[in-house]
From TrEMBL, chains A, B, C, D:
It comes from the Eukaryota. InterPro entries: NAD(P)-bd_dom_sf, SDR_fam. This is NAD(P)-binding protein. Pfam families: adh_short. SUPFAM superfamilies: NAD(P)-binding Rossmann-fold domains. It comes from Salinomyces thailandicus.
Length: 247, 247, 247, 247
């Protein structure tokens, strides 16, 4: 008998990824991918202690081999398991520089993670998502979610690395949605348009009320709501911003 | 003491409007606006019988006087009540004609309801939504939702009346969102991209599986999820389509 | 024998309209529509004096009767003439107000001119543009151009009247383009994203170099280039901004 | 004394690239970059014979070294020359496949040329374009043009490689436009939405009139018109389609 359907979250740090992991762990065993185990170790422990089931796998999402190994470990741990939800939340090195000061590596750093990584993650996850689509007992359609940003639809000066990567990921998301929705996989792209309230952004907007930043838990709840949508109501794109955002 | 916060749904027929009314009636007294009382009478009865609270008001949303009278009746019935949710779901007469065969009335028919009506509805609802924003006991931020369509972002041949109206409503929605979000009102625009499964569309796509149409109940659930979003996570636009939609 | 093909420009003031009239008058007799004859009288004189041919017609583009009369006068003056180019450059009363302070008239003022007016102008002009499309001697495909603005694609706070009107006009333009391109009429929408350098804006950005504003003559030249495009290369949308614009 | 300002076209085959080269060669010495010299040899000869000045350089635009060598050769041949126009017209290997059948190389093939290549081309060309911006005798502002496609704004099923690459290039174009317009460089992105009439597409749409395809010469003329725009009227994006295109 196949193991219980799982959720996989790629790109787990102290913000959105962790919040999404906690939220989805209330219904599914979760697998957390991050390059640095420090990013998931305490979270894995926390989830397992609180009655959930979690494992972390050190993964470089821009590396074909590393990604392949991660999914092998998932198969070892969760033999034959379908994937109920897969969330791609990784972002590459963020480069903001005048165009003439960038190296080729600077420029492609965003793409290698955000788009090439998202492609490889999707290739590994989709067969397992399709498996869930065929499971008559599945509570919700399998869901593949990509975390985008303001730069997914807006390319500002000095932001060519990040914006080109995020534009590219958005195209990937739509193309996969169109190919796999008829097979029962729900693909959604979220435009996170604002500063997420995480330790790293603690000093940003510090003179503003809490509503100037996006809550990571709120994003997680919205992702969960996307996951709950039925086959007769797939949302393929949402935007998210805090109450006080200027846009 | 003010009455309990209510939800108002403009444009109630046998589809989205009715489903939204039922969904929001599980938490709020609901007020249903439609020109023809046949569109809400049995629904009002059904909701009241099932333990909810509902009233219907015959309203021509394209008429300033009719809209004004509707909100007077709401104030009479729900004295001092704030509005927790207002959903504008009305659409004007649908005209699909070669441009040279349209009358000026044909052309403006869409705008008068979908945009001018949405504007007037918003003007009446916003002070009541702001009241809810100031209520420290409000469970969720007050929410103003506009129902758009494929034509909100795509203007096909012979669709100029409908598309220009829906484009215009989308602009209105965004402008209101930007003005009122900082005051705590959550404004969202939904692009309903597909055929909704209602009695009128029974014969459409009849050789296709149920997943070729959008479920009205599913739209209602998604609107409810939008309403539940907190101040640190407002979604201003979503799209919705059925699993089998080509797009 | 039919008269020479003409160009019609609706919305002639001291800026874009006048510049477009001058530019197109180098090839075609031009007809200028504006409510106030002061807006075209000296320009008509100037063009006629310089070897061109021009006439002005006082027209309220938001009035079906006035528009009808204008085209009757055109037919009287240019019996049987085809239209080589029609440019809709009119904008309604510009209202920038908090939503709750607007009257219904404030709100619809933009639409009545920018969209309803554009619709009526198109209905009158299209049969004459189609006539030019059938003329084997026509040098360029007949062209219908709509002047949009930043607000055609961006709806800011307090800008709901203008933005909803301009969004609507953009939808109209696309819908007409899709219906009439196969019949040989080139329809284009221009997003003018910046301040045009006209007498009224003299005090704006006055500490900035000339390149902070858009040149009306430059817009006219770009419109002329659109007109020159052949049937195998129709541009349906362009944006225009000055070198120093922030966007 | 510096050499005369030149135009550089990357991605020269028998279609758009060649037509653009011919058009710009009427005003500037042109440099043609293509991997395979067969793609430019006869064209270089033709232009030189007809009174223009042309050179071809075998270049792999996805290779940093090859791109660097190309610009060294340009500097040798045109010592100190500014660049009046640079057109990036290269596209990578076109892959249309179900997502699960693609290799990582298939997926990144589009990006490596269309986006990474465009980035490197821009980095080499921009200092020379800036030089032209500072030349008081320059007739037109220096212009950097990127050739996009339908897939620049639409990501269909099985098109994730091409669409993600083209979305990414569009972001790059906008980001560069915003950074360099204030310095006087005009950056434009063209969405070529349709089949271009070239030898390779001869059999496509062969039962349709000539107006079902885009003329390469027409694209070139439109690019030339973009180049002619003054500093008070920069177009940053245009679309182009043939009269009979469905969109």
């Amino acid at each position: 008998m196949a193991s219980k359907a799982i959720a996989i979250i790629a790109g787990v740090g102290p913000g959105t990824g962790a919040a999404v992991a906690r939220r989805f762990a209330t219904s599914y065993p979760v697998v957390l991918l991050a390059r640095n185990p420090d990013n998931y170790n305490s979270l894995v422990e926390e989830i397992n202690k609180n009655g959930g089931k979690a494992m972390g796998i050190s993964t470089d999402v821009s590396s074909p081999d590393s990604m392949k190994q991660a999914f092998s470990k998932i198969e070892q741990e969760h033999k034959g398991a379908a994937v109920a939800a897969a969330v791609f939340n990784a972002s590459g090195r963020f480069v903001r520089k005048p165009l003439l000061e960038m190296t080729v590596d600077d420029f492609t750093a965003g793409y290698d993670v955000s788009c090439k990584g998202a492609f490889m993650f999707s290739q590994h996850a989709l067969p397992l998502l399709l498996k869930h689509a065929e499971d008559a007992n599945a509570k919700y359609p399998p869901t593949l979610i990509f975390t985008g940003a303001t730069a997914s639809i807006k390319a500002n000066a000095q932001m060519s690395s990040f914006a080109s990567a995020k534009f590219a990921m958005r195209a990937l998301s739509t193309s996969i949605a169109k190919e796999f929705a008829p097979k029962g996989v729900h693909v959604a792209h979220a435009i996170i348009d604002g500063v997420i309230d995480i330790p790293r952004t603690k000093e940003w907007l510090k003179d503003m009320p809490a509503e100037a930043k996006i809550g990571a838990d709120d994003i997680a709840e919205t992702y969960w709501n996307l996951h709950q949508q039925g086959k007769r109501c797939f949302t393929n794109e949402i935007d998210i911003r805090p109450m006080l955002e200027k846009w």
